[in-house]
Write a structure and sequence with these properties.
The chain is of the alpha/beta class. It has 7 helices and 11 strands.
């Protein structure tokens, strides 16, 4: 996974307050219900600050998590008891190693979009296969490319403004430009916020995200050790259709 895709301190600091609004009611109930109903250990790849993990842990799911960002994991550690911190570790999805097999592995919120090459994608899929119990399920999601967005991009688009703590505001602006040949979106997130001393801060983070097409995903899964169950068009597992915004991909270890 590219170093540019490792979430830095500025993203970790404001992640929870931004995505509590941006993703509220969108994918949360789907993934948490899968984790809570799993009949055995569950692994979340790209666990981040624990948007899903903490809720599943409260529901007594046997949940574990990996992430390649120290900063994101530091935020997660603040939310869980020290006795539970053995469940999380800093590892990359292409090379992680755990002494446990899982009945369910999830990689929510576009984790796979940070894997830019086919070699990385296959390495991740096969590493996940190796950590699944027989019959185990792997679920991940990706956004369906918007052709208008790919052609026109975004230029300093304001996608969030709100308090990150009482009396202090953060704003986020997004710029995106697509390389159509390489299927890469170059994204820049700009954060503007005020500190306790009244000073306004402004910081940017740029990274690449891969976008995928339907049949490309089918071929990718078929090249891996995993068996493709289905590619759904939303978090209710409805079929793909003209109004679908997300790929929800479900695979199995035979």
């Amino acid at each position: 996974m590219s170093e540019s895709s490792v979430y830095p301190e500025i993203v970790a600091r404001f992640y929870d307050v931004i995505y509590a609004r941006v993703r509220a009611g969108y994918d949360t109930s789907y993934f948490i219900s899968k984790m809570k109903s799993a009949p055995g250990p569950v692994l979340e790849v790209g666990v981040g600050t624990g948007r899903f993990f903490t809720e599943a842990l409260k529901a007594q799911a046997d949940i574990y998590g990996i992430d390649n960002s120290h900063e994101m994991l530091d935020q997660l550690k603040k939310k869980i008891d020290s006795s539970e911190q053995f469940r999380i570790s800093k590892q990359d999805v292409t090379s992680f190693s755990l002494d446990k097999k899982f009945v369910l592995i999830i990689a929510p919120f576009r984790v796979f979009a940070h894997l830019l090459t086919v070699d990385e994608q296959l390495a991740a899929l096969n590493r996940i296969f190796d950590h699944l119990a027989p019959g185990g399920i792997f679920i991940f999601d990706l956004y369906i490319p918007d052709l208008n967005m790919l052609l026109n991009g975004l230029d300093n688009f304001p996608d969030f403004e709100g308090e990150y703590e009482p009396g202090h505001t953060v704003k986020r602006f997004v710029t995106a430009k697509a390389d159509l040949v390489r299927q890469i979106n170059r994204v820049t997130m700009r954060f503007v916020w005020d500190e306790d001393n009244g000073e306004e801060k402004d910081k940017e983070w740029s990274f690449d995200m891969r976008f995928f097409w339907h049949y490309e995903l089918e071929h990718l899964i078929h090249r891996s050790k995993l068996e493709l169950i289905n590619i759904y068009g939303d978090y209710n597992e409805n079929p793909l259709g003209p109004k679908s915004r997300d790929f929800v991909i479900k695979c199995r270890k035979q």
